[in-house]
Amino acid sequence: MTDRIQEFLAERRRAGRDNGPCLVVDLDVIRENYRGFARALPDTRVFYAVKANPAPEVLSLLASLGSCFDTASVPEIEQTLAAGATPDRISFGNTIKKERDVARAYELGIRLFAVDCVEEVEKIARVAPGSKVFCRILCDGSGAEWPLSRKFGCAPEMATGVLEHAHRLGLQAYGVSFHVGSQQTDPRKWDGALKSAADIFRDLAERGITLQMVNLGGGFPTKYLKNVPAVKQYGNAIFRALSKHFGNRLPETIIEPGRGMVGNAGMIEAEVVLISKKSEAEGELRWVYLDIGKFNGLAETIDEMIRYPIRTEADGAPTTPCVIAGPSCDSVDVLYEKKPYELPISLEIGTKVLIEGTGAYTTTYSAVGFNGFPPLETFII
């Protein structure tokens, strides 16, 4: 927790404004994260993944620093334009787009689109003529704490046909993209995907089509309970893999950090609502219920894939294993049960807890107001 966040939360308590869970994001941390990516991969353009945290203050800061943006919808495109980005710094990176949304993006000046099938190529050719397209391929996501499914991307051997089809329809076959899985803890995982990308470059070159760009995707982690490699290690591993598979003819490269850009910039303050047991049996676990759960910010605890650090004022005191759950009237709103969480025995109802590493994928998952609990209140400092 940064001193700025600590001071903000202390003042909020003194003023009696701590009436529910809140997220506090420190822009200074994001600024330093951006600079870290720029240093680690100096010849690579940063396309921040807007879905991680689309707060206007975050987008404006990154736009002022020179960042580009990866967007998944027309509203995200409009948000980044409003924050000061120009259309040439925005990609429409979702491979699943309504044709009218492609047309609207084109109208707004967007010329860079992701695809993973010929059907998507045909939409773009009809309403966004002359645009650049890059084809997303499937790759191994092992080593990632939040593995991505087969929903996005095609088999590498299909990509050649998809991009050749784009070329025939008058689009610019621009490059290849992949994603090695969110919260990827193994920097070596880019190697295999880059080999596939290089093969596609060569196959298309033999057909007279010159690709230019490799989108290295996201996957760059933030620190939760476990230490993760520094961004410099990822930069070194990626550069080695690029040199290995592309030789001296390195392509243009872009990255799409989301979690790695904003995750460690945020802290949620929450409150213990209830502590109880389900029976008096020996060894029965305590249940600790917080005023925040899966439906108002902590959706990434699904299957306990992301294990957030939870801090209390009693840290260092004796602990006991606990089940942690949220406040909603839904039985799936349990955060950690398969692997119980160690919390202080002295923890009491009404105690404040701090949940670290929550700058990414929290506010964006808490916009509905399920059960009447309001969306997660957010402060950007």
TrEMBL record:
Protein name: ornithine decarboxylase
Signal peptide: none
Family: Belongs to the Orn/Lys/Arg decarboxylase class-II family.
InterPro entries from the UniProt entry: Ala_racemase/Decarboxylase_C (IPR009006), De-COase2_N (IPR022644), De-COase2_pyr-phos_BS (IPR022653), Orn/DAP/Arg_de-COase (IPR000183), Orn_de-COase (IPR002433), PLP-binding_barrel (IPR029066)
Keywords, alphabetical: Lyase, Pyridoxal phosphate
Family matches, as PANTHER family: ARGININE/DIAMINOPIMELATE/ORNITHINE DECARBOXYLASE, ORNITHINE DECARBOXYLASE 1-RELATED
Xref: SUPFAM superfamilies: Alanine racemase C-terminal domain-like, PLP-binding barrel
Catalytic reaction list: L-ornithine + H(+) = putrescine + CO2
